[in-house]
Amino acid sequence: MAVLIAIEGIDGSGKGTQCARLTDRLHQSGLQAASVRFPRYTATQFGQAIGDFLNGRFGELDAVHPQLAAVLYAGDRFESRTLLQNRIDTSDVVVLDRFTGSNLAHQASRLEGRERDDLMAWIEAVEHDVFGLPRPDLNVLLDISADWSRRLVGRKDPRDYTDQEADLQESNLPYLERVRRCYREIAASRPDWTVVPCLTPEGELRSVAEIGEDVFAAIRPLLPNHSSRTN
After folding, report:
1. CA distance 112 to 193
2. Which CATH superfamily groups domain 3-229?
3. pLDDT (tens digit, 9 = 90+) per residue, 169-215?
4. I need a labelling partner for 165 at 20 to 30 A (CA). Which of 73, 91, 129, 190 fits?
C-alpha cells in the first residue's frame, strides 16, 4: 500500500506547486508516485456543487452551515474513492493536494468551543468511517498569512470552476485567517501533522525551492527504502 501524503494550507499557500514538485522528485528518486487534487470541481457531481457554493450560488459564506458545506467536500472524495484507491494500489507514494484535513480546518473555523469539536468529530466519522476514505500517513501544512494568501491568489492562472479572481472563501481575509489558525491548532495537537512555514521570521515569502526542501525532509522518513532510494 502506498504512503499517503496530504499537502494542506489556506488558499494561495502553494499546495499545487509543492504537490507537483514533490511528485516529480519522487519519480526522479525511482519511486512510483501519483497525485490527486481535491476538490475535483469538474469531475464529480459534488465537485460541481462545490464550485457553485464557492461562486455564491447558495448565498454568502455564512448562509451555508459548515456541516452542510462539509458534506459537499466529503462527497467529492467519496465519488473519487475508486480513483484514489487505484492510485494507492499502483504507487509507492500518493500525494494529495488537499484532503480530509482541509474539510476540518475550513468548516471548524466557523464555529467555537464544543460546537467546533463536535463538528470535527462528525466530519472525521463521515469521511473515514462512513465513506471509508484512508487516513494520510502525514499531513503537511504549508503555513502562510491571510495577507500573503490574498496576494498570491491574485497571481493564479484562471481556474475551471470560477471566472472570478477570487472565490467566496479566497476573497474573505478574516475567514482565511480563522482557517489558518484552525489548521495550526490541528497540526499542533496531532502527531500525523507537520508544519512548513512559507514565510521568513520577518514576514517575507520564502522561495519555492526552500519550501520544497522542507516538505521533502518532512516526508522522507516515510518513504520506502528512503535511505537508499532518495536524495
Report:
1. 22
2. P-loop containing nucleotide triphosphate hydrolases (3.40.50.300)
3. 556 788 899 999 999 999 999 999 999 999 999 999 999 999 999 99
4. 73
CA angle 77, 78, 84 (to 5 degrees): 65
Comparing 1-10, 203-212, 222-231, the range with the smallest average pLDDT is: 222-231
For residue 24, count other CB atoms closer than 10 A to its CB.
13
Domain boundaries in the chain? 3-229
pLDDT in tens, 64-104: 999 999 999 999 999 999 999 999 999 999 999 999 999 99
Going 33 to 207 to 169 to 111, the CA torsion angle's sign is positive
Grid-cell match 466529503, residue found: 74
